[in-house]
């Protein structure tokens, strides 16, 4: 087997998963010393911690004061399902799908909720649907950032200020790293694991006054599971929006989220988090520009994600191989680098295009991603040489 010289520098933290994401630099279990095991989440001090997660998230993200924010079960998925099941029905729906989770929301809307008037706008991985075709006088369902395609919406200019429909946005891998125009969005969901790098299992939802009005004026004919019920007898319950969660949260995860918020505030808040993510994207762009075997999955620079950075292989040798070889090659490179302890969990999503995906969100150090990319170059060349020798 041909031997290539290994890079001299190793990442200080080799975790590049797109969820759960890397912990913030300096994280340790010692930071959770204020956790009180065995205390009820209904106890006064614990409710205050849950409320602190809500209000500190509001401040950090710049969420308007008249938006209501709640902690939900089941991560971003639970939060987004809560929005869909409660809000959809009185208007036609435009839903966009250009990556795995957008396609999942299409299934929910068409097959499970059985909304009758639905227009689906799909595009291939690495591309966006034509935003000019979206009618915001209808309800609109979309992801802001496609975690499995590396594609983000560049801005909110396509959303009318005087829209009649609701805009329902899965923003879990966009918040904390991208500019989000809150006045354009009516229901926004996210989780603690994305960008903040906190623990999974809990989600959050922010609802505009227009979304609250929908909740209080429209009652879906379908039955709502208990975990989704945020209104009763035509009125929105205030409890979830002041830290009194629908079900029992993990107070250990709450403590971890508070430490992540501490870190975000200490480094300079949202602008600093966005800059760290932008710097990571720029590092990948500079590296890819020098390679002749790999490039960004999204070809249009304006729509490239700075969190879930997705790459495709452009090497003629790779492209000319049978398609059934593509994923095994990708997995072989990942296995090789994981064996070296220099990068973990960086293969693209199994339902996406065979390639590599490096999480570049704010908790990842630029030096770590630069070092990992040099190892990726070594790993790919090593695996290719092995295939060539076996074929000789």
Word description of this protein:
The structure is a single chain. By secondary structure, the protein is of the alpha/beta class. Helices cover 34% and strands 15% of the residues. The protein has helices at residues 44-61, 75-87, 100-112, 209-217, 251-266, 269-289, 316-319, 326-340, 366-391, and strands spanning 68-73, 93-97, 118-122, 139-143, 145-146, 151-152, 167-170, 187-191, 202-207, 231-232, 235-236, 294-296, 308-313, 355-359. The protein has a 7-stranded mixed beta sheet, with helices on both faces. It has a 3-stranded antiparallel beta sheet with strand order 12-13-14. The longest helix is centred in the C-terminal third of the chain and has 26 residues, at 366-391. The chain is globular, with a radius of gyration of 22 Å. It starts with 43 loop residues before the first helix and ends with a helix.
Count of distinct strands: 14
List the secondary-structure elements in sequence, H or E: HEHEHEEEEEEEHEEHHEEHHEH
Structural class: alpha/beta
Number of helices: 9
- CATH domain class name of the largest domain: Alpha Beta
CATH topology of the largest domain: the name is Aspartate Aminotransferase, domain 2
- Compute the number of structural domains: 2
Lateral arrangement of strands in the main beta sheet: 1-9-8-7-4-2-3
**Beta-strand level of the residues, as a percent range?**
5-15%
Looking at the overall shape, the CATH architecture of the largest domain is: 3-Layer(aba) Sandwich
Report how far apart the termini are: 11 Å
Mean pLDDT figure: 97
């Amino acid at each position: 087997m041909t031997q290539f010289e290994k890079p001299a520098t190793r990442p200080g933290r080799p975790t590049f998963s797109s969820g759960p994401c890397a912990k913030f630099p300096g994280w340790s279990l010692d930071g959770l010393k204020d956790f009180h095991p065995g205390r009820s989440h209904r106890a006064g001090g614990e409710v205050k911690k849950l409320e602190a997660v809500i209000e500190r998230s509001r401040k950090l993200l710049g969420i308007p004061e008249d938006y209501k924010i709640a902690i939900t079960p089941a991560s971003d998925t639970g939060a987004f399902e809560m929005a869909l099941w409660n809000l959809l029905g009185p208007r036609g729906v435009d839903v966009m799908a250009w990556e795995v989770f957008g396609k999942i929301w299409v299934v929910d809307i068409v097959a499970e909720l059985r909304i009758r008037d639905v227009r689906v706008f799909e595009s291939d991985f690495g591309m966006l649907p034509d935003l000019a075709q979206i009618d915001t006088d209808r309800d609109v369902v979309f992801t802001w950032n496609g975690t499995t395609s590396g594609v983000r919406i560049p801005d909110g200019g396509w959303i009318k200020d005087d829209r009649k429909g609701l805009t329902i946005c899965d923003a879990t891998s966009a918040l904390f790293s991208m500019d989000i125009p809150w006045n354009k969005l009516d229901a926004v969901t996210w989780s603690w694991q994305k960008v903040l790098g906190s623990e999974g299992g809990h989600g959050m939802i922010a609802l505009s006054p227009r979304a609250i009005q929908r909740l209080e004026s429209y009652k879906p004919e379908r039955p709502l599971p208990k975990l989704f019920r945020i209104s009763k007898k035509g009125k929105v319950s205030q409890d979830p929006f002041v830290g009194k969660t629908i079900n029992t949260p993990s107070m250990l995860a709450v403590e971890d989220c508070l430490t992540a918020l501490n870190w975000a505030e200490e480094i300079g808040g949202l602008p600093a988090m966005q800059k760290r993510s932008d710097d990571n994207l720029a590092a990948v762009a500079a590296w890819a520009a020098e390679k002749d075997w790999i490039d960004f999955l999204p070809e249009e620079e304006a729509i490239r994600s700075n969190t879930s950075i997705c790459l495709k292989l452009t090497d003629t040798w790779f492209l000319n191989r049978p398609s059934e070889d593509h994923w095994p090659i990708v997995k072989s490179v990942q296995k090789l680098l994981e064996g070296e302890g220099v990068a973990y969990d960086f293969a693209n999503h199994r339902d996406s295009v065979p390639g590599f995906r490096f999480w570049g969100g704010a908790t990842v150090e630029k030096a770590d991603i630069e070092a990992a990319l040099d190892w990726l170059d070594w790993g790919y060349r090593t695996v290719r040489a092995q295939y060539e020798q076996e074929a000789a």
